[in-house]
């Protein structure tokens, strides 16, 4: 390799995409710099930061993986040993950056697959990990690497990245091996295997029992990744629904809860009947409010079936069930418009039912406009909570009529400041909505 002249016009530091406009970091310039031992590290990193835009550099990057540092053999033994160690460190760092750059270029770097496969046998742990990661980033175009990636699943340093790569390239034949990695709790890399199984989706359905077991793992990351993987399997993970609902109670980890909600939403889309009753038990039961919130999110994925079931619960003998049904329908928003008639009937029931029903109608929005007359009628109710709920609901529905504006304007003088403040907010919402429509 040649050395960079002191008058070189470019300061050789790695760039990100925002720096491209300021310097001549064009691909041809960076490719040339790969041959300069003082600039090659930064050039490789910069090419990686350019991503797919650097695809024309792939042949040069492949060639760069064969570059070695030169050692002056005419030195004293101690100096030569030191130089040899430095040269090996220099070489390993450069090759790692080159392999990483190829991965960042992605599918357009598929011609580099044989060279990256060769790096899986490198003595340097970081190089092996990077090579596996880059093969995964190339994706299905790296399918020929499957056998070699399976071989390095025995390598503790690489197992996680090799597992992920097998998932990325779509190696269906690796499913039994990935399940084996998942089951081995004594070694690292289980989260990578779980992620890969999820990436393979429904074709990895034989892993569902093991993924259900992983939802109860001591490791938070394992639990979160298992929930995500089950969601990717859709209807094939139907049997995981009870365990995923149980995972909603994992309040120590919001990631586990959120991934479980997403998984339930994916599964219920494909198999709604199997999930609906279990989610309703959570929403209408005595679970923690945060857990119920997550369950409501999952119910939104079911749509009309959930709305119908919740609508039926509006006439339940227990106030708690009616209250939670109405609140849940409100949280579902416009999706719940089909139950507006049932919610209007609920307004005519017990006084305690008016608040939750009005809440739901307001959150459904303009589609609940047929409830306006009865809501307006309650603005003079003796109970301030009823007046407040109906005032807020009228703002949520947001439909401007002469009667609504007149009555809300009168409510600005309500004897309870909480009601008058809500009236002011509702009038603002209605005006904004009217201006938007206009």
Please name the defining characteristics of this protein.
single chain; 438 residues; Leucine-rich Repeat Variant; 24 helices; mainly alpha; disordered N terminus
What does this structure look like?
By secondary structure, the chain is mainly alpha-helical. The protein has 24 helices and no strands. The protein has helices spanning 27-33, 40-49, 58-64, 77-105, 113-119, 125-138, 146-151, 159-168, 175-183, 190-200, 208-214, 220-232, 241-247, 254-270, 272-284, 289-300, 304-312, 319-332, 340-347, 351-364, 372-377, 384-397, 402-411, 417-437. The radius of gyration is 31 Å and the shape is elongated. The termini are far apart. Mean pLDDT is 88; it is low at 1-12, 16-22 and 71-75.
Mean pLDDT: 88
Summarize the main sheet. none
Strand content: under 5%
Assembly state (oligomeric): single chain
* Shape-level CATH architecture of the domain at 1-72 and 86-145: Alpha Horseshoe
- What is the β-strand count? 0
Topology as H/E string?
HHHHHHHHHHHHHHHHHHHHHHHH
CATH topology of the domain at 1-72 and 86-145: Leucine-rich Repeat Variant
Structural class: mainly alpha
Rg, rounded, reads: 31 Å
Tally of separate helices: 24
Q: Please report the distance between the alpha carbons of the first and last residues.
A: 70 Å
């Amino acid at each position: 390799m040649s050395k960079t002249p002191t008058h070189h016009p470019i300061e050789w530091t790695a760039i990100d995409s925002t720096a491209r406009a300021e310097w001549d970091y064009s691909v041809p310039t960076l490719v040339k710099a790969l041959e300069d031992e003082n600039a090659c590290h930064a050039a490789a990193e910069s090419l990686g930061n350019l991503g797919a835009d650097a695809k024309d550099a792939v042949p040069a990057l492949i060639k760069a993986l064969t570059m070695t540092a030169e050692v002056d053999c005419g030195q004293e033994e101690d100096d030569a040993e030191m130089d040899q160690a430095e040269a090996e460190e220099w070489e390993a760092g450069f090759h790692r950056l080159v392999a990483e750059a190829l991965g960042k270029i992605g599918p357009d770097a598929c011609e580099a697959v044989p060279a990256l496969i060769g790096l899986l046998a490198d003595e340097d742990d970081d190089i092996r990990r990077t090579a596996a990661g880059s093969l995964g980033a190339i994706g299905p175009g790296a399918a020929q690497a499957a056998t070699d990636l399976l071989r390095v699943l025995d390598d503790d340093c690489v197992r996680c990245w090799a597992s992920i790569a097998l998932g990325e390239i779509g190696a269906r034949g690796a499913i039994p091996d990935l399940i084996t990695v998942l089951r081995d709790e004594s070694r690292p890399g289980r989260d990578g295997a779980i992620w890969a199984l999820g990436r393979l989706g429904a074709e990895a359905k034989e892993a569902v029992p093991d993924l259900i077991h992983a939802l109860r793992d001591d490791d938070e990351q394992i639990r979160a990744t298992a929930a995500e993987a089950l969601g990717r399997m859709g209807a094939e993970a139907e049997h995981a629904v009870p365990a995923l609902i149980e995972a909603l109670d994992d309040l120590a980890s919001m990631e586990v809860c959120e991934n479980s909600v997403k998984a339930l939403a994916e599964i219920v889309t494909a198999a709604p009947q199997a999930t609906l009753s279990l989610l309703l038990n959570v929403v209408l039961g005595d679970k923690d409010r945060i857990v119920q919130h997550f369950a409501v999110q999952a119910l939104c994925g079911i749509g009309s079936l959930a709305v119908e079931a919740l609508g039926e619960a509006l006439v339940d003998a227990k106030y708690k069930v009616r209250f939670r049904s109405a609140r849940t329908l409100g949280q579902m928003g416009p999706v719940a418009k089909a139950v507006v008639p049932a919610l209007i009937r609920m307004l005519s029931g017990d006084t305690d039912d008016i608040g939750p029903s009005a809440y739901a109608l307001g959150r459904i929005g303009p589609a609940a406009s047929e409830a306006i007359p009865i809501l307006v009628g309650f603005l003079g109710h003796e109970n301030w909570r009823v007046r407040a709920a109906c005032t807020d609901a009228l703002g949520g529905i947001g439909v401007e009529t002469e009667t609504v504006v007149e009555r809300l304007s009168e409510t600005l003088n309500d004897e309870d400041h909480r009601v008058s403040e809500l009236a002011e907010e509702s009038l603002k919402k209605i005006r904004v909505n009217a201006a938007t429509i206009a």
